[in-house]
Design a protein that fits this description.
5-stranded mixed β-sheet, alpha/beta, 7-stranded antiparallel β-sheet
């Protein structure tokens, strides 16, 4: 990821000092800025958008203050303000706060992963930061130890955090209960979600991890890690390892080891053939290469969950004699135990820090199941309706807005910079969930999707934001602290570009650097 060059930063700072860009109030298309220092943002934006690689791009931006210092404190304390009067520049609008700068802030834009700003906020607000997903383990057998003489029923609720470490804990629960053998089948109840594994057609096209499938019972984000290492010498087959190794995914290895002088050309593809997930590895890897890891999604999430569970049970010394099948858990079963996920606050942290599409879609369907107003299963459409209702509950006009998934992978969603800023402001001010929400955002130059961005010019550690990236779409929204100690809320969305992403990121970085130094 390319960062803004120091020379470019210096050029911008000098230009802003020498050539402030005037804003004409009589121009209906002009930007709105309430402070002289931010008026020059127009010069930055126009100079970038005039470049050949950004011509035709559309930008939407809003910058607001989060500080009470921007408000006339005497008016607030005395109650002398005219309640019916419209907010003035720099005055406190309870819904928005002082707007310091805006440009096309109400234009519906493709938000990419900034949709997750809404997904995470609505989930935390409706379920609470301490909410935990539950996966229940029950049996219809009479005896449990040492032989569970009936079927084992596993009922899921969409826990997005069931990774290998959690399966080890689950298997250990069986071991400590004295269960040495499961005589019946493992019956997987996935009825809490509908049967559609992808939120939209956009999500079903690829085999990359960010196209992960959803499921009421899912394992390891419904992905598989493919480790590729060179063989013993040139000409030998490459060494392939899957993690976790459960036997659920087949491997076709056409990759070879080449001399150390040649380059690495490994490619990994995952396809679904005859009811089986097949990973095909091709290309070459040099002798002495440290190896590469590829993440690929898998089809049949329930099957992957069952295979992973059975593998960890066997590893704990629990034999599985029956088959792994899908079915609905009957009412007259005996509960063995309930596995609870980590708190929702930590799940949302993973969602926003790493922009995890799988987690976003799981949360969306869970919202649909719990708050959709109908009986389960949870659906993407019902979850998306809840997100729109959440926006309306904040006083946001949703007439021209649209949300079709929880991750932002679809090009069909539309949000505005102002609506995203409103969500962040509401979360920032909510004592019950605000600290958890703000801490879920990536920190500039430090972690998450901003780990390799804005580590220059003093910006490192001063911005907490959610990024977004699709073909022709980039977005970044969050909060920051300026050199003067001011707390700022911002949202920037750019659509319609056809250049490299780093060239649009340079524009975002220049804008945020100027705000930071203002």
């Amino acid at each position: 990821m390319r960062r803004l060059k120091p020379a470019l930063v210096l050029t911008l700072v000098v230009a802003l000092v020498l050539c402030p860009y005037p804003v004409r109030a009589e121009d209906p298309g002009a930007d709105t800025a309430s402070t002289h220092s931010l008026q020059s943002l127009s010069w930055i934006i126009d100079s970038f958008l005039a470049k050949p690689h950004l011509r035709g791009a559309q930008l939407s931006i809003i910058v607001e203050s989060l500080d009470l210092s921007c408000v006339d404190r005497d008016s607030l304390d005395s109650g002398s303000a005219d309640v019916g009067a419209p907010p003035q520049q720099g005055a406190m609008d309870p819904a928005e706060g002082p707007v310091l700068y805006e440009r096309q802030a109400d234009r519906p834009m493709i938000p990419a992963s900034n949709v997750k700003i809404v997904t995470g906020a609505a989930t935390l607000s409706l379920l609470g930061p301490d909410y935990r997903f539950e996966t229940t383990f029950s049996t219809d057998g009479d005896a449990i130890s040492p032989v569970l003489d009936g079927n084992l029923y596993v009922r899921g609720s969409g826990d997005p955090s069931l990774v290998s470490e959690e399966f080890w804990k689950i298997a250990d629960r069986f071991r400590t209960k004295g269960i040495e053998r499961i005589a019946g089948d493992i019956v997987l109840d996935v009825s809490y979600f509908d049967s559609l594994a992808t939120a939209t057609e956009d999500a079903g096209d690829g085999d990359r991890a960010y196209h992960a499938r959803t499921g009421a019972l899912s394992a390891n984000f419904n992905t598989v890690r493919v480790h590729v290492h060179p063989g013993a010498k040139s000409g030998k087959a490459a060494r392939i390892e899957l993690s976790p190794e459960t036997g659920f995914v087949d491997v076709v290895n056409d990759a070879t080891t080449c001399s150390a002088r040649r380059s690495q050309t490994i490619q990994v593809r995952r396809r679904f053939e005859d009811g089986r997930n097949v990973v095909h590895i091709s290309g070459r890897i040099p002798v002495g290469h440290r190896g590469k890891v590829f993440y690929r999604n898998i089809d049949d999430p329930a099957g992957s969950f069952g295979a992973t569970l059975a593998a960890f049970l066997r590893g704990a010394g629990v034999a599985v004699e029956g088959d792994i099948i899908q079915g609905v858990q009957p009412d007259d079963v005996r509960e063995l135990f309930v596995h609870r996920s980590k708190p929702l606050s930590l799940i949302v942290r993973d969602l926003n820090k790493f922009s995890n599409n799988f987690t976003a879609e799981q949360l969306l369907k869970a919202l649909g199941a719990m708050h959709g107003g109908t009986e389960v299963p949870g659906e993407t459409t019902s979850g998306a309706t809840i997100l729109m209702d959440y926006l309306e509950s904040l006083g946001i006009d949703t007439t021209e807005l649209r949300i079709v998934d929880g991750s932002g992978l679809s090009h069909e969603s539309r949000l505005t910079a102002r609506s995203l800023a409103r969500v962040i402001r509401e979360m920032y001010a909510d004592f019950g969930v605000g600290p958890e929400y703000v801490s879920s955002l990536s920190v500039s130059g430090t972690d998450g999707t901003l780990g390799d961005r804005m580590g220059f010019g003093g910006l490192s550690g001063e911005i907490r934001a959610k990024t977004g990236l699709l073909d022709g779409v980039t977005a970044i929204s969050g909060v920051m602290k300026t050199t003067g100690g001011k707390r700022i809320l911002f949202s920037i969305i750019v659509n319609g570009w056809s250049c490299e992403a780093w060239q649009v990121h340079d524009l975002e970085h220049a804008i945020l650097l100027h705000i930071y130094q203002s």
